[in-house]
Automatic annotation (TrEMBL):
It comes from Lacticaseibacillus camelliae DSM 22697 = JCM 13995. This is Nicotinate phosphoribosyltransferase. Catalyzes the first step in the biosynthesis of NAD from nicotinic acid, the ATP-dependent synthesis of beta-nicotinate D-ribonucleotide from nicotinate and 5-phospho-D-ribose 1-phosphate. Keywords: Glycosyltransferase, Ligase, Phosphoprotein, Pyridine nucleotide biosynthesis, Transferase. Its EC number is 6.3.4.21. SUPFAM superfamilies: Nicotinate/Quinolinate PRTase C-terminal domain-like, Nicotinate/Quinolinate PRTase N-terminal domain-like.
Length: 486
């Protein structure tokens, strides 16, 4: 049977539905629960990550309804009784969601999104939220790392052909723009998000004319702004001379904006190309480079004095090639008990890094009042008063002897309310505002955290109370397990 693909509500792991069913049958589906989403390690060896994906997540949550086709499918494919299907039919999203906003910085082991509400609903949305946030945050982070090494050079996003399918290309392009790219080659992303579209031409154009000069001439006769791809046959002997010849012939009829090189030793070739262009009087014509570039090759090329003005980047950005998964998780941190009281929950593991931090939290971004620069993040219980304190004792949660007392600081809450009991209360900013916020956020970090190779570890600390509560709960659970063993 064919079912209409008319909702994302079944874009979830089957086990979420089975847990929902259990909660519903056992009468706890409406208990208040708090889940938090965080990742354990920063990707790419980075000193920071850029949060992205909220707009898509909001759209998903706003449309969270089981449609007739969803219910028909579940009826046919699962043993769920009609009563549960009726419950799903009537389900409306009523959770409160707090989240980092897009373009803000996020770090390892701190909540970047928090979902509070009826247990069954908050459980259901785990998979899709992780799917969205994991990917977009990863690509925005990669983009911001590339931005960090290019300075003000224009960055063109070229990834669609190499992306993991169509929606990854679209959302990846948006994330890349947030992280600091200037344009995309994906015309649909331009249409949907207003991202500037830009591009050159492919080798096919030159191959179609079987000659650099003929191809560039044909292109220039019908296009005003031209960037010629000069490496199809021989960059220095044929491509660049042909581009120069056409540009001279066409004169003011075109704007000879650039040449693109896509192979060979980019440092050597770009220097020679620059020389040829300058000698012909085209000192303003830019050199665009593409070919499996990322922040590491770009940094290296800059070190070699490559004369590249504009960077075209595809595969390694859109696929997050060297760290293809962020690994963000979604953990239950607090739940209402039989008496209606909220109690902390923890997940223990023999792997210390996988032990979750219990309790509903807020993340405070601590900056020095005098210069706005980062001091670290301070995670506290939601009810703790942080902003009004005169001084803050910050210590490393695993190595408490690494500590400092901060004075004259500003504390900004990172998690903002997006949905209040199911109602969207957050006004989504424009994409350009998000991008500007990201650039400003990265700028607020010390260079020690933004350098791409072996950055300093940004402090992500727990409040004393949160740390004490975590230790108490670990002890409590261990004693309970021991008792059960006897
Ligand atoms: N001077 C350089 N220093 C460091 N890396 C470079 C330099 N020049 C090019 N690269 C990078 O080295 C890699 C070269 O890849 P590869 O050998 O596949 O390219 P190619 O053979 O020139 O072109 P094609 O992709 O058409 O095969 C690319 O990732 C490119 O960006
Ligand atoms: O290298 P990326 O960062 O992924 O950038 C996108 C690539 O897409 C195009 O190549 P094309 O698909 O024509 O194949 P090519 O690699 O053989 O040039 C373009 O010439 C770039 O090389
Ligand atoms: O416009 C370009 O030059 C372009 C677009 C997509 C992929 N590679 C290059």
């Amino acid at each position: 049977m064919d079912y209409a693909d008319d909702s994302l509500v079944l874009h979830t792991d089957f086990y979420e539905l089975n847990m929902m069913y259990t909660y519903w049958q056992q009468g706890i589906s409406e208990r208040n629960a708090v889940f938090e989403c965080y990742f354990r390690d920063l990707p790419f060896g980075s000193g920071f990550a850029v949060f992205a994906g909220l707009e898509h997540a909001v759209d998903y949550l706003q449309h969270l309804r089981f449609t007739d086709s969803d219910l028909a499918y579940l009826k046919e494919s699962t043993p769920y009784p009609q009563g549960f299907l009726d419950y799903l039919r009537d389900l409306k999203f009523t959770c409160t969601v707090r989240s980092a906003v897009e373009g803000d910085l996020v770090f390892n082991n701190e909540p970047m999104m928090q979902v509070e509400g009826p247990l069954a609903q908050a459980q259901l949305v785990e998979t899709a939220l992780l799917n969205i946030l994991n990917y977009q945050t990863l690509v925005a982070t990669k983009a911001a790392r590339i931005r960090a090494v290019v300075g003000d050079d224009p960055l063109m996003e070229f990834g669609t052909r190499r992306a993991q399918e169509t929606s990854a290309a679209i959302w990846g392009t948006r994330a890349a723009y947030i992280g600091g790219f200037n344009s995309t080659s994906n015309v649909r992303a331009g249409k949907l998000f207003g991202i500037p579209i830009a591009g050159t031409h492919a080798h096919a154009l030159v191959q179609a004319y079987r000659d650099d000069y003929e191809a560039f001439k044909a292109y220039a006769e019908v296009n005003h702004d031209v960037t010629f791809l000069v490496d199809t046959y021989d960059t220095l002997r044929s491509g660049v001379p042909a581009a120069i010849k056409v540009a001279k012939e066409m004169g003011d009829k075109i704007d000879f904006q650039g040449v693109r090189i896509d192979s060979g030793d980019m440092a050597y070739i770009s220097k020679r190309v620059r020389q040829q262009l300058d000698e012909a009087g085209f000192t303003q014509t830019k050199i665009v480079a593409s070919n499996d570039l990322d922040e590491n090759t770009i940094q290296n090329l800059k070190m070699q004095g490559a004369k590249i003005d504009i960077w075209g980047i595809g595969t390694k950005l859109i696929t997050a090639y060297d760290h293809p998964a962020l690994g963000a998780v979604y953990k239950l941190v607090s739940i209402e008990d039989e008496s209606g009281k909220m109690v902390d929950t923890i997940k223990l593991s023999s792997n210390a890094e996988k032990v979750s931090t219990p309790g509903k939290k807020q993340v405070w971004r601590i900056t020095r009042r005098s210069n706005g620069k980062s001091e670290g993040d301070f995670i506290a219980r939601d009810e703790e008063e942080v902003a009004g304190q005169d001084e803050l004792y910050m210590f490393h949660p695993s190595y408490p002897y690494i500590n400092k007392t901060v004075k004259d600081f500003n504390a900004r809450p990172v998690l903002q309310t997006i949905f209040d009991h199911g109602e969207l209360v957050y006004q989504l900013p424009t994409l350009d505002a998000i991008r500007a916020f990201c650039l400003q956020s990265v700028d607020s970090l010390w260079d020690e955290y933004t350098r791409v190779l072996n950055p300093q570890e940004y402090p992500v600390d727990l409040s004393q109370q949160l740390w004490d509560d975590k230790m108490d709960l670990i002890k409590h659970v261990k004693v309970k397990v021991q008792k059960q063993q006897l």
